[in-house]
Amino acid sequence: MSTVRNPVSMWTYVLLLWSFLVSRTSSWPVLEQQLHHLSSLRYGSGPPASPALNLTLSESAESKVERLGQAFKKNVRTLREKSGRLDLVFLVDESSSVGANNFLSELRFVRKLLSDFPVAPEDTRVALVTFSSKTHVVTRVDHVKAPKSHQHKCSLFNQEIPAITYRGGGTYTKGAFQRAAQILRHSRANATKVIFLITDGYSNGGDPRPVAAALREQGVEIYTLGIWQGNIRELHDMASHPKDQHCYLVHNFAEFEALARRALHEDLPTGSYIQEDLSRCSSLCEAGADCCDIMASCKCGTHTGQYDCICEKGHYGKGLQYECTACPPGTYKPEGTPGGLSTC
Fold first, then answer.
1. Does residue 296 lie in a domain region?
2. 214 and 103, same structural domain?
3. Quick one: which of 2, 67, 219, 331 is 20 to 30 A from 17 by CA?
4. Residue 95 C-beta-side C-alpha neighbours within 13 Å
């Protein structure tokens, strides 16, 4: 005997199912709104960030970094052209959540970014602070507070940054900004003052945002660079306005380096050269000493960050032993700069 279905019961079932589906799908706009809010935290609330900075779920990491890099490059160029005198302070996170390998990536980011600036007492001055726990906020480099003639790009790249070691600990970002404020009290009156915060975004030990806000009110420009999984709101709030030009978030520390590579200027000027002790050029030849020619001297390239033997005025060549030649009759090189015969 066949079973007769009750049509009322069937319609009741259909209505219950429909009600369930409607209640489930009604949460979709809320979810969409939450995702939009998370995206807005990346570069600030209000109008959407510029198309060059918006990310899509389908976008590859390479194309994402490429677009961020182009935006960062533009802002670095603007910063460089804004003033011939810059006082830059780098705050580098060395907490346990960062790890030793990623800490090295942060330092490489600093080096790559500075490749675009002449570092010398009369040009760009640099300070670098590493921070972890409250007792480990350390000024590793300070060319701002009391600059010396031998503090330049070569000492920074060849001695000071390589000497920095990793410690681990907490993430006392507030203390790092307080240290930056102390350093910038000694900044030049006519210099553009800039802070670069490089972190995984998880701060502890107090809210750093009021300290960052006070620095911004004093005219300090603040860039924050962090990891997407970190405290996005905090990084956003600490950065200067406009937020989409001062807050950059990547997915891992390797992308920090890629971001800096894309920010480098293609045609860097030669820059100036600062006289150095001959011993600084001892690695330029196999003998390990007296590498420079008698008509050359050891100098630091404020743009290259390298020690070089440079032929003195009236001479051209590579600068190493027996490689400086007097300019031909009727020509002259007015100053000691690198280059061949064409410099005479």
1. yes
2. yes
3. 2
4. 20
User: Pick from 152, 147, 149: which is nearest to 117 by CA?
Assistant: 152
> How does pLDDT run across 30-84, given as a tens digit for each residue?
333 333 433 444 434 443 343 334 444 445 666 778 888 888 888 888 888 877 8
Confidence of residue 87 (pLDDT cuts 50, 70, 90): very high
Residue 9 placed within a domain:
no
* pLDDT reported for residue 74: 87
Residues 250 and 284 placed together within one structural domain of the fold: no
CATH of the domain at 245: 3.40.50.410
Q: What is the pLDDT of residues 242-276, one digit of tens each?
A: 998 999 988 888 888 888 887 776 556 667 899 99
Q: Which of 5-19, 146-160, 184-198, 224-238 has the highest mean pLDDT?
A: 184-198
- One domain for residues 138 and 185: yes
Q: Which residue has the tokens 């100036």?
A: 272
- Are 197 and 335 within one domain? no
Class of residue 66 by CB neighbours under 10 A (exposed 0-12, middle 13-18, buried 19+): middle
pLDDT attached to residue 81? 84
* 112, two tokens: 């790559």
Task: Examine the domain organization and report whether 180 and 316 are in the same domain.
Answer: no
Answer yes or no: is 335 within a domain. yes
**pLDDT score at 40:** 42
Cα angle 41-43-49, degrees, rounded to a multiple of 5:
115
Parent domain of 221: 59-263
